[in-house]
């Protein structure tokens, strides 16, 4: 016997992932006057639980269930008391309701009547991206509208623009690899992909270009920021929730400051891939423990690099050739393990925060360089994210300080 909308499910499915608890207002909708025997409904009660699937809905901190509803959408709702309901949109509308917030609101602000029991979808307090003054940043007026058709992984999606499907690479982030043709799935890659799918599957989005990053990458993917209808910037959201790393490719980008701050906050809170228990602790993006513990002393002052002929960072694709190899040297690169060993050959402590280590063959940055390197200390820095070092061909590396000056070169 088929289930009626609003009727408890006899055998509820087991969800793959249940979102944070949400509050919903459950009420009996007005009976239609032209229906002699209205469909069975539940008494008007307050139910607290979780939206599990359907309707492009999500849960916000206030407890409201918010999102985009389309005709025929079915929502799975699980109460804390263990009751399951299917709730179906029964209003006749020409389009999804709504796909944009009304003028002057910060998020979706609307109420939609569903078949029994009804769910009130209240205003969603958006979590917008802000500039340094605290002013909210909104997507530009010329941002392209698109429909997400496929989530490839955490940082790559397919969208439909004017009837044409194109692939998008999100600017300013990098997530662990899951779809590389030869490399294994990386630590926390599946979790990042799952979170991206929850955010983006079947969503209507706005795409923002960044002239500083170019139109597309070397694989032909369009480089874009992706905005949700509630004002969230997906690129930043992935970083803020601990599913992606901030990633600068060659040149700074428009939201670099905000993304770096989001990563700092996620790391301090040990969210997602920053958790000590991520992947059973086998691979953690936190900085390795120094081989020599720093003595209790005031914070060391970074030693400036003053080579005779200064070479400045312009691109990881540029082979800089010779280098002073001081005050830090590249002691080795384990390309298969995606790890770099740096050694402080000076008599002073060196602060590596903001330093850049390049894979020149791939034109990519080795993540995780940072912290204080004591005199004579040698430390291994593990890259986390998509593989960058070429294992089958020579792939030299270059190390630049926080000012962009060439410090060391590894010829491979």
What can you tell me about this protein's structure?
By secondary structure, the protein is mainly β. It folds into 3 domains: 125 residues, no CATH class; 146 residues, OB fold (Dihydrolipoamide Acetyltransferase, E2P), CATH 2.40.50.90; 121 residues, Lamin Tail domain (Immunoglobulin-like, Sandwich), CATH 2.60.40. It contains 3 helices and 25 strands. It has a 5-stranded antiparallel β-sheet, with no helix packed on it. Strands 10-11-12-15-14 form a 5-stranded mixed barrel. Strand 5 and strand 6 form a beta hairpin. Helix 2 runs parallel beside helix 3. The longest helix is centred in the middle third of the chain and has 13 residues. The N and C termini lie far apart (69 Å). The N terminus is likely disordered.
Protein traits:
five-stranded antiparallel sheet, globular, about 400 residues, 3 domains, Immunoglobulin-like, mainly beta
Oligomer: single chain
Shape: globular
Q: Give the class from helix and strand content and strand pairing.
A: mainly beta
Mean pLDDT: 67
Give me a quick take on this structure.
8% of the residues lie in helices and 28% in strands.
Layout of helices and strands:
Elements: E1 22-27, E2 45-53, E3 57-59, E4 65-67, E5 74-79, E6 84-88, E7 118-119, E8 129-130, E9 136-137, E10 144-153, E11 156-161, E12 164-170, E13 173-174, H1 189-200, E14 204-208, E15 222-227, H2 234-240, E16 245-246, H3 256-268, E17 328-334, E18 339-344, E19 350-351, E20 356-359, E21 364-366, E22 372-373, E23 378-382, E24 397-400, E25 406-410
Parallel strand pairs: 12-15
Antiparallel strand pairs: 1-2, 1-7, 2-5, 3-4, 5-6, 8-9, 10-11, 10-14, 11-12, 13-16, 14-15, 17-18, 18-23, 19-22, 20-21, 20-24, 24-25
Helix pairs in contact: 2-3
């Amino acid at each position: 016997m088929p289930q009626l909308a609003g009727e408890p499910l006899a055998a509820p499915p087991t969800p793959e992932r249940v979102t944070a608890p949400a509050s919903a207002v459950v009420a009996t909708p007005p009976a239609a006057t032209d229906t002699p025997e209205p469909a069975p409904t539940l008494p008007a009660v307050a139910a607290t639980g979780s939206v599990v699937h359907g309707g492009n809905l999500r849960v916000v901190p206030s407890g409201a269930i918010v999102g985009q509803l389309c005709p025929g959408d079915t929502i799975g709702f699980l109460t804390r008391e263990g009751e399951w309901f299917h709730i179906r949109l029964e209003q006749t509308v020409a389009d999804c309701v709504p796909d944009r917030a009304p003028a002057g609101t910060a998020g979706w602000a609307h109420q939609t009547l569903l078949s029994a029991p009804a769910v009130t979808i209240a205003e969603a307090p958006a979590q917008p991206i802000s500039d340094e003054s605290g002013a909210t940043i909104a997507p530009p007026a010329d941002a392209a509208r698109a429909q997400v058709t496929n989530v490839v992984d955490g940082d790559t999606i397919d969208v439909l623009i004017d009837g044409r499907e194109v692939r998008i690479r999100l600017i300013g982030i990098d997530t662990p690899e899951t779809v590389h043709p030869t490399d294994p799935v990386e630590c926390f890659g599946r979790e990042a992909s799952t979170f991206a799918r929850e955010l983006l599957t079947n969503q209507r989005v706005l795409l923002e270009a960044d002239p500083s990053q170019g139109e597309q990458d070397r694989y032909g993917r369009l480089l874009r920021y992706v905005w949700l209808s509630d004002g969230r910037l997906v690129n930043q959201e992935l970083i803020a929730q601990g599913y992606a790393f901030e990633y600068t490719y060659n040149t700074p980008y428009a939201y670099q400051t905000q993304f770096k701050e989001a990563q700092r906050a996620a790391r301090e809170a040990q969210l997602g891939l920053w958790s000590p228990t991520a992947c059973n602790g086998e691979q953690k993006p936190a900085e390795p423990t120094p081989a020599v513990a720093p003595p209790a002393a005031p914070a060391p002052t970074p030693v400036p690099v003053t080579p005779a002929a200064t070479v400045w960072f312009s691109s990881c694709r540029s082979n800089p050739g010779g280098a002073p190899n001081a005050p830090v040297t590249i002691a080795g690169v384990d390309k298969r393990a995606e790890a770099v060993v740096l050694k402080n050959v000076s008599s002073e402590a060196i602060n590596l925060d903001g330093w850049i280590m390049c894979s020149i063959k791939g034109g990519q940055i080795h993540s995780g360089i940072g912290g204080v390197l004591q005199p004579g200390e040698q430390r291994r820095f593990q890259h986390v994210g998509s593989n960058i070092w070429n294992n089958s061909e020579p792939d030299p590396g270059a190390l630049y300080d926080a000012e962009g000056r060439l410090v060391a070169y590894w010829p491979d």
